[in-house]
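USER: For my understanding, would you kindly supply a protein sequence with its structure tokens?

ASSISTANT:
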Amino acid sequence: MIYLLIMKLIMINPKFSGLKAFSYLSSRAILALITSIVVSMFLYPKAIRILRSLKAGQPIRELGLEEQMLKKGTPTMGGIIIIFATLLSVILWMDLTNRHFITLLIVTVGFGYVGFLDDYLKITQKNTAGLSSKKKMLGLLIFGTAAISWHLWSSFHLSVPISYTLYPTSVNIPFLKNVIINLGIFYAPFAILVIVGTSNAVNLTDGLDGLAIGPVITCALTLMILSYVTGNIVVSKYLYYHTIPGSGEISVFLSALIGASIGFLWYNTFPAQIFMGDSGALALGGILGTVAVITGHEILLVLMGGIFVAEALSVIIQVASFKTRGKRVFRMAPVHHHYQKKGWPEQKITVRIWIISFILALLSILTLKLR
């Protein structure tokens, strides 16, 4: 909104040319970050008080973990503030005519809505069941399909020469120069799987104070850098990297998301004053998966989001092993509970996972040169 206003003022009167500094992508990304931090930091204390007065506490499953039971009653649905602060900042500083804004908006609002319904049912019914897994998956698939449909339709209606871009149904293979696979008609279900899978993986990771939000920030920061590169023809050609028209604007969106996540982390560090709930975890995971799809980093997401992959795989392995062999591989799944069962303090697990996530982010950025 502010970006479009600045551009209009410059066109109307040259006297406003000094405002052009605020129209640059880097300037708007920084301003979006600051805006979302301020908004979230301002809203969380009020939200915590209101949620406590409404007794909107997070129901806790009986896992045999004393630390987990101490969290009973902690306000949840903090993800709503993350979404609100992100979108408010985005509306102010992002170019709203950018086609990728619509794709990200569908996922952010849609996945956030599904998560909200799940959180609301848990709170009102005073149990951990919430929305049934089938209904939750159906909701995610509907909004994921809508987002990918818009993305592909808008991609195929571009007037940019295709030789400069990654073909809309193609997947880039990291660390290998010019190795691109065109999935054709199979791309849509693949892309939807990436988005919905990432959403659920982040949700599974959100089990300890500050655990999920740390890797979300490192992944968002990595994707922000990669989005800028793929959106800049000069930089991408210099690095012999693929180009995605308009993807540079996504860096403003991700910058706003990082700011809102930092604001949330302030109140989510141990001992947490508020949880993000499914309304936050599903939306954040969906955003990361969607950006990876838009920018052609679906495969690289496995590396940068290695923490989420490990958490999801631990659940799959545990269930498969118990059903086929009657034995458990881990003491408890997701894997962060395994280390709790081994006696690791919650803070140690969280910080070590943050460190691993940071290393994976650096390795992912290296793909810009190591090919």
